[in-house]
Automatic annotation (TrEMBL):
The keyword Transferase applies. GO terms for cellular component: membrane. The DHHC domain is required for palmitoyltransferase activity. PANTHER family: PALMITOYLTRANSFERASE ZDHHC16 (PTHR12246). This is Palmitoyltransferase. It is a multi-pass membrane protein. It comes from Danaus chrysippus. Its EC number is 2.3.1.225. Belongs to the DHHC palmitoyltransferase family.
Length: 240
């Protein structure tokens, strides 16, 4: 975006107000992505020895301690995680009750940012081509055999189109993750429960979805969605 935006502004003659708006919006996305990622990584999700008693405790042979029924042991973290969702490769930490808010917000802003950047990259690529030249480049990338019919060396323009396709792929990938985890949040289940199919039948109504949403983002969810550092305590029902 640092490379693309100045050229787009010059080519399409963005007004100062519109340019400033996009800069502020980009910074807002950046702060939320980085902030939620950092807090998601450094928020401790493990159950400590001597923690307060939980309902329906089970004994973990690996940790040699009692844990609540909705906690699972992670071999990579070597600890029991309260309301464990999964072990995140990017965070290198388990996603559980205390940091699921940051993870879902991180996915949300990653997806929105990818759509936003792909939109700008599309206009950047279009500005580099003549009227029909871009379609020829797209066909050559999608079907390499056309290079024999159009014997031109691959240039920077073709590379621009390739990166545009890469961006579109990342939009689809991040969008899939966002939809999957957003669905789990509203349904009130973890990825572990989704895979094991251990969750009871979900009643698709507004009050249930709102309660499940608050169990992840806290009582001040409206602040938690737009600011990573916002204090949003979880209700007591979040552990159920």
């Amino acid at each position: 975006m640092v490379v693309v935006r100045p050229i787009i502004v010059t080519t399409y003659e963005f007004s100062t107000t519109k340019h400033a708006f996009h800069i502020i919006l980009s910074m807002f996305f950046f702060i939320n992505i980085v902030g939620n990622m950092i807090l998601g990584i450094f928020t401790d999700t493990t159950i400590k020895m001597g923690s307060r008693p939980y309902k329906c405790e089970e004994f973990c042979e690996s940790c040699q301690m009692y844990r609540p029924a909705k906690a699972w042991h992670c071999r990579k973290c070597n600890a029991c995680i309260l309301k464990r969702d999964h072990h995140c490769f990017f965070f290198s930490r388990c996603i559980g009750l205390r940091n699921q808010r940051y993870y879902v917000a991180y996915l949300t802003y990653i997806f929105i940012s990818m759509v936003y950047s792909t939109y700008f990259n599309f206009y950047y690529v279009v500005s580099k081509y003549d009227e029909y030249e871009i379609y020829v480049s797209v066909c050559r990338i999608v079907n390499p055999f056309l290079r024999y019919l159009i014997p031109e060396p691959m240039g920077m323009k073709d590379l621009y189109v390739f990166f545009l396709f890469l961006n579109i792929g990342l939009v689809i990938w991040s969008g899939g993750l966002f939809v999957f985890h957003a669905r789990n949040v509203l349904k009130g289940e973890t990825s572990h429960e989704y895979k094991e199919n251990t969750r009871s039948t979900f009643k698709n109504n507004w009050s249930a979805m709102k309660r499940n949403f608050i169990n992840v983002f806290g009582e001040k969810w409206y602040f938690a969605l737009v600011w990573p550092l916002a204090h949003s305590p979880l209700p007591e029902t979040a552990e159920d």
